[in-house]
Amino acid sequence: MRAAFIAMRPLLLHPDCRCEAVERIAAEVTGSSPAGLVVRYFVAGDIRGLSLPLPSGPTRTDELWRHSCFELFLRAGEADAYYEFNFSPSLQWAAYRFDNYRQGMRMVEMPAPRIEMRQDGDIFELQAALALDMLLEPDGEADWNLALSAIIEERNGQISYWALAHPSGKPDFHSPNTFALSLPIQIRS
Fold first, then answer.
1. What is the pLDDT of residue 140?
2. What is d(CA 136, CA 48) in angstroms, rounded to the nearest whole number?
3. Which of 141, 148, 146, 142 is nearest to 189 (CA)?
4. For the CA atoms of the chain, what is the radius of gyration?
5. Best CA proximity match to 25, nearest among 39, 5, 36
6. What integer best gives the mean pLDDT of the chain?
7. By the 8 A CB rule, do 82 and 98 touch?
8. Three-state secondary structure of the chain
9. What is residue 66's predicted lDDT score, i.e. its pLDDT?
10. How far is it, in rounded angstroms, from Cα 43 to Cα 120?
11. Distance (Å, whole) CA 80 – CA 132
12. pLDDT of residue 138
C-alpha cells in the first residue's frame, strides 16, 4: 500500500439534524503498511454532553449505528459492491460487504480492527486501524472511493448524522452520493 497518502476532511451535519453538544467533526484517513488503513475521527465540542458507550472489549457486534458510532465505507472505483465498517467507543466493531446499494449484505471475515480512543478537554478522538488485504488480490491496485460518517448520540437522547456528503432526503450513509473521497490503495505480494 502506498503509505504516502493522508486526507483530512470535515464531516457535515445532516441538514435535518441538530446537535447541541458538537461544534464540528473531522476525519483523517492514512495509508499504513503493509496493507492497511487508519481512520481517525475528531469530535470537538461539549464532550460531556455526548452519550459514548464505555469500552467493553473488541467484539464483533451488529447494529452499532443505533448509538454513537463511527463508520467507513469503501468501494473500488465505480463498482456496485462496497464494504461497511463500524467502530464504536465500546471497542465493538462490525464489517459487512454489500453486492449493491443495501443489497446482498454479508459479514466480512477479517481480524478485529484496532480501536483506540482519547479525550483531551473538548476533543474526543477515535482511531481505527484495519487490514485491507482481504479486499484486494496481491499486486492489486485500485482507486477506492470512501464515505466517512458518524452517528452521535447526545445524553438527552438526540441522535445526529454526520458525513462527508449527504444525499437529499433522510440520512443515508449507503447512498452512492456519500462516497466523496478517492484514495489510491495498492497491495504488493
1. 54
2. 40
3. 141
4. 16
5. 39
6. 88
7. yes
8. CCCCCEEEEEEEECCCCCCCCEEEEEEEEEEECCCEEEEEEEEEECHHHECCCCCCCCCECCCHHHCCEEEEEEEECCCCCEEEEEECCCCCEEEEEECECCECCEECCCCCCEEEEEEECCEEEEEEEEECCCCCCCCCEEEEEEEEEEEEEECCCCEEEEECCCCCCCCCCCCHHHCCEEEEEECCC
9. 92
10. 11
11. 18
12. 45
Greatest CA separation found in the chain? Answer: 50
Name residue 114's amino acid.
R
Mean pLDDT value across residues 112-126: 95
Question: How do residues 59-71 score in pLDDT, each as one tens digit?
Answer: 999 999 999 999 9
CA distance 155 to 93: 22
**Cis peptide bond prior to 34, omega within 30° of 0:** yes
Residue 168 grid cell = 437529499
pTM, entire model = 0.90
pLDDT at 16 over 70: yes
Core vs surface per residue 109-140: b (16+ CB within 10 A) or e: ebeebebebeeeeeebbbbbebbbbebbeeee
